[in-house]
Design a protein that fits this description.
- This protein has 14 helices and 4 strands.
- The chain is mostly helical.
- β3 and β4 form a beta hairpin.
- The protein folds into 2 domains: about 190 residues, no CATH class; about 140 residues, no CATH class.
- The chain is globular and about 50 Å long.
């Protein structure tokens, strides 16, 4: 009875590189992601100025990166309400950039949270709207304004020359000491995604040059997590990586693949939980989804054995009852049944879907 109900209500998607028998439930994934984004947008802790919500790296950002691709897979004719509200919030904050308060003002978060918040949000807004434009194949004034806001905050001297201030709450992997590199990679993704020849525009070349130099000078010291973001970003900006550098990142990722075909977050960096509990070392949906997606963006075919095995792992490890893939916190042990305990699984589900919807033979 349960299988018949799932077949009737869900939409099982075959992954071409894996064969017709390898399917995952796109409808269940969409239901999970929509419900999580709707909860996030209505959660009082996420509320921000002008009746908007914070763009979280664990829930809202991954949701906005994947939801349109998932909608295409489901043949949806319109945005779900959760996505429309999320996009509308971003657009409102972009248009009112000089009026809205930062996500975390200095007055409540302490120095230098205003600067960190502005730099972080400017990049998140830009990559979300550039992703929307890329799906439509048309540039938009809102995305261009978001990119202008982003460039205005790019550092032009010092150690962060070419990068941005980025939120640091000592929470891995998105808000910690190495996270400005993650943010700069997202900025490069935004630039590479915006249509209309944006990355080739003469007015942007000096800015992109600084960004390229910032990302390239840090390659050797970055975690594999950050290098996967760089590999992803390299698909949209010429000369971001040499062929040797690209291959070195691909090789490093393949070398850390688990025997089961997946990756664990523990394998992508040197992390330590604040409560001193052990970090899960089993393969998880976020690490596997991110690596499989970044490898494909970096030019590795879905049919290549490492990617094919990763996609197979993702298909096999979706929880069909909930639609989600799971991952656990790098910072402390959390109850996975709570809303906060699902944060990493929100990211895991979005990136798993990104990898699967991008797969071609």
């Amino acid at each position: 009875m349960r299988a018949r109900t799932a077949a009737a209500l869900g939409l099982f998607i075959a992954t071409p590189a894996l064969g017709a028998q390898e399917t995952w439930d796109a409808r269940a994934a969409a239901t999970y992601l929509d419900s999580r984004q709707a909860w996030w947008s209505s959660w009082q802790t996420a509320a921000r100025d002008h009746q908007t919500a914070c763009v979280s790296c664990h829930t809202a950002l991954p949701y906005n990166l994947v939801r349109s691709a998932l909608g295409d897979a489901l043949h949806e004719s319109d945005m779900p309400s959760a996505q429309r509200r999320a996009v509308d919030d971003v657009i409102k904050r972009v248009r009112l950039w000089k009026e809205v308060e930062p996500f975390y003002p200095d007055q409540t978060g302490g120095l230098p949270k205003t600067s960190e918040s502005r730099g972080t949000e400017s990049i998140l807004n830009a990559v979300i709207l550039a992703t929307r434009d890329a799906r439509a194949g048309l540039e938009s004034e809102d995305a261009r304004l978001a990119l202008d806001n982003m460039w205005a905050l790019q550092f032009r001297r010092g150690d962060l020359n070419g990068g941005w201030a980025w939120l640091n709450f000592h929470n891995e992997p998105w808000e910690a000491n190495e996270s400005p590199y993650f943010g700069a990679a997202l900025a490069a993704i935004a630039v590479g995604r915006e249509p209309g020849g944006y990355a080739a525009n003469a007015d942007n070349q000096e800015r992109i040059k600084r960004l390229r130099e910032y990302l390239r000078k840090g390659i050797a010291t970055q975690s594999l997590f950050n290098r996967m973001m760089l590999l992803w970003a390299s698909s949209g900006i010429p000369d971001l990586l040499t062929s040797d550098e690209r291959q070195a990142i691909i090789t490093a990722a393949c070398d850390r693949q688990g025997a089961d075909g997946g990756w664990s977050l523990a394998s992508l960096g040197q992390w330590k939980r604040s409560d001193n509990t052990a970090i899960d070392s089993v393969s998880d949906g976020y690490a596997t989804g991110l690596v499989a997606y970044a490898l494909q963006r970096g030019g590795v075919a879905a049919s290549e054995p490492h990617v094919s095995r990763a996609l197979g792992w993702l298909v096999q490890h979706q929880d069909r009852a909930t639609g989600m893939w799971t991952a656990s916190s790098l910072n402390k042990q959390r109850d996975p049944k709570t809303d906060i305990g699902k944060f990493m699984s929100d990211a895991a589900t979005a990136y798993a879907v990104l990898a699967l919807t991008s797969a071609t033979p």
